[in-house]
Structures are given as structure tokens and as C-alpha cells.
Please model this.
Amino acid sequence: MTLNTPFHYQLIEQKNYLRMPWKNGLGETLEIQRDEDEQGLRFRISQASVQDDGVFSDFSGLNRTLVLLTGNGMQLSCLNASQESQQHNLTEPLDMARFAGGDHTYASLTQGTIEDLNIMVRDRDSIAEVQACFSPAAIKLLDEKTLLTGFYANVDSIIGMQIEDNSDTETLSLPAQSFIHFCDDKPPFDAIQVISGSGVLIEITNR
Model:
């Protein structure tokens, strides 16, 4: 649903995410946003449920940010092509790990199923700035054009934006596990106010 207000946005609820199999065939992902060009995948945002320990799919050429949404946590063990290892311990909602998609990455669940949010961008020409946001807070946006600016609400949330042209404040209620995509290259506000709830601000730019 795209709405005309002082700014343009698209609110996508979880029921409208695109369900598709994992690359390794061991599970399913809910695709939220995707962008491709003549060179292939530029970026993708998706949500997944992880029910068992196991190796992540190989996404060489992409950088990944993984955000814990629900569950008792997990540990990621990443091994790169130079045999350098990195450990990530995700224990609380919105804890996150950043790693290369081509790393050999093994996930160990702490106790039971978890859900996570995955942000992947092409490493040679794209950057993902991902921030965990807990109310009450005002989170500054990047002062540049973006390929995508969006907010994922992990719980029921209310966010506010002060429109630069007229100083009006627009407030929006976001259902849990929904995503709002601000459709302008540079939205007409410089910060998002997280009035209640929590979520993840995602800004994808050219490298």
C-alpha cells in the first residue's frame, strides 16, 4: 500500500512478504525488499526463522547484517578465505552481526528457534547502515541520497517524522514485524522519532 501524505512511503505487513526457499534448501525466508540490476542482486532485506543449527548459504560478493528478532539467541562462527575466524554472540532482541556473505558461517542456537532479519548488499558498490532503535529516541538519517531508507518494526511501534517543508510532524503506527519503505531518494525529514516500540533503521547507499 503506497499512501500520499507530505511524503511518500510504502507500508508492508508480514502477511505480504514473499515466501521463498533458502538458497541451500534447508528453510524458508520471507523476502521484504529486493533490488536487481544488470549485474545481479544489488540488495535484499528478508526475515527468516532458524530452527536448527547449521551452515549458512554462500552469498559471496555480498556483505550481510543479521539482526536477532525473537528467541533465546544464537552464536555465529565465521571463517573467511584467509582462514581468519570471527565469533558473534546474539543474545538480546536487535543484537546484530556483520560479516561477509562468502564466509563459511555456522549458526548454533542457544535454546530453540529464533527469528532474524537479514540485510544483504553487494560489497563492491553498496553499503548498508543498520541501526537498532529503542524508544524513546530520535535517530538521525544520513545526509545524502539513498538507494533505500526504511524502518523494520520488531514490535508494535509508533514513529514520528518532522517534515522539513512545513515543520509538521507525521506519526505512523507500525504493526509488529512490518516494514516501512520511504520512497524518496532523500526523505523530506532528517530524523525518525521512535515514540514507542523498537525496530531497525536501514539505509542503503552507493559505496
Remarks:
- The radius of gyration is 17 Å.
